[in-house]
Amino acid sequence: MAGIGERLGLGPHERLLIVNCDDVGSSHAANLACLEAMRTGVATSGTLMVPCPWAREAVDLFEGLDLGVHLTLTAEYPGYRWRSLTGAASLHDAEGFLPSNVAAVSANASPDDVRTECRAQIEQALAWGVDVTHLDSHMGTNQIDPRFFAIYVELAVEYDLPLRMVGPRLDGLLGFPGRDQAAAAGLVFPDEFVSHWGRPTDALFRQALPAVGPGVTEVNVHPVLDGPELRGYDLTEAQIRVDDHAVTMDPAMADFLDDQGFRRISFRPLRDLQRAAA
């Protein structure tokens, strides 16, 4: 079977790269950094955290840019929290917010409540006028629990959207054949996903990307402008976000990606391909 690149009308040896800014809408500083990364840096795509306080601002700022929905079931910062759109009890912790970690979601969240909440987040983005290009998952919550993964696929089919998927190596470690399930449902998704939270992104890109083969690879970044806002809510990992912004804006990184022969795209061509096949 032809690969995604060939199905997009490109040669069999073409390497396509999606650079996705996660956490759009999580803060004003994240919005500004992701916007800059997409407009003048190496980023090609972003994903919106619909329940977050700065999501509505992002809709206006990112008008005309490619945004997906970053399905959000967690609120990880100790002093900066948000709630679900639907208010379901199983989705909230004792303080009334989305839980701080994936394990708490898996332990307590009802799949029916997860389905309703994720659908509400997609519907809200559409109602705001976002031309949603794809779905992915904040902190991977929808991707690593087979119950929630089934909902992830179900919603992608319902809205005819491509998905972020873990790469083939990690897929084999999850305990269920997620990539096979998504493909059987007729969904389009990248061939590879390069991500390693906490590892310097510049070094990760330079070591991992030369080794990826033809087809579509997604990498994700979490750019945020440095300053009191970021340092006030992210007390432990703010520098990762600052450094990600720097990487996306570094001309040397743009040159590196060009020298590697990557053609940078967003998820939109994958969405168009999926919908044309349907």
Can you offer a commentary on this structure?
With 278 residues, this protein is α/β, with parallel strands linked by helices. It has one domain: TIM Barrel (Alpha-Beta Barrel), CATH 3.20.20. The protein contains 14 helices and 7 strands. Strands 1, 2, 3, 4, 5, 6 and 7 form a 7-stranded parallel sheet that branches.
In short:
This is ChbG/HpnK family deacetylase. Pfam families: YdjC. This protein has 278 residues and is an alpha/beta fold.
Secondary-structure blueprint of this entry?
Blueprint: H1 4-7, E1 15-24, H2 28-39, E2 45-48, H3 55-61, E3 67-71, H4 102-108, H5 111-127, E4 135-137, H6 141-144, H7 146-159, H8 168-171, H9 178-184, E5 192-194, H10 201-208, E6 215-221, H11 228-233, H12 238-249, H13 251-259, E7 262-264, H14 268-277
Helix pairs in contact: 5-7
